[in-house]
């Protein structure tokens, strides 16, 4: 609060208090020439008379005591502009103290799960219930309440993991986030193969999940050479990707940004930039473990053998 606003508040409070004192004093005293309390001439039904008697002294004194209490309150607590008050109380301090108490309760709740592997936590019903709650409050905004994702947001219920699907890799993703970047290759490919170069690569990439479609496919044949000149650095010669880079497997027919030709063309031409935020600071390690355990359980339910293909 600036000094100007602080003085504005102080003056306004002082005027209101002094105004209340003056009003009580002015209206609570009788002056020479005032009519008698019974002399109002307001009579109804012959015996109902309106009087004009002053308020009892105890009532007026109670108002004065209230004003004195208000002055003491404003001295003790911060109510006069930027003056802190002798108690040193602040709303931010009150919030911090309340937060510390609630955080201590949360720590007691989460303490039994600290440091445990997420595949172990996934077998604990109580841990899964907590993990699901954390997921719904934090992760469902992007991945959906069913965790099946959307265009640009991965489906967490299948066995396809661009950055690896082991417990440690999933936990690392939740804790520290991921930065997936697909560079813009439109100009490079056009320079190498002409105006149709991107379409050639799209055609070849589609054959990676259906090798039989490569036969007698002129566009795919043209795209194969372009792919091997540019794309293999991240996706590999066989198109199975690289989990260290987050480069997706192109042979599984799963497309994070959609499988239409237009979507694939845009991905190659203009690139993509996907960000998974880090949650270490937001959730803390134990809550992040619980959320990761819930995510891991979606593709590894109890009683189901682990998936043989982790991508």
UniProtKB/TrEMBL annotation:
Cofactor note as given: Binds 2 heme C groups per subunit.
Transmembrane segments: 6-25, 62-89
A Pfam entry, by short name: Cytochrome_CBB3
Record-annotated Cytochrome c domain positions: 126-209, 218-299
Subcellular location: Cell inner membrane
Keywords of this entry: Cell inner membrane, Cell membrane, Electron transport, Heme, Hydrogen ion transport, Ion transport, Iron, Membrane, Metal-binding, Oxidoreductase, Repeat, Respiratory chain, Transmembrane, Transmembrane helix, Transport
Main location: membrane
Family membership noted in the UniProt record: Belongs to the CcoP / FixP family.
Protein purpose: C-type cytochrome. Part of the cbb3-type cytochrome c oxidase complex.
Name of this chain's protein: Cbb3-type cytochrome c oxidase subunit
Protein source organism: Lysobacter stagni
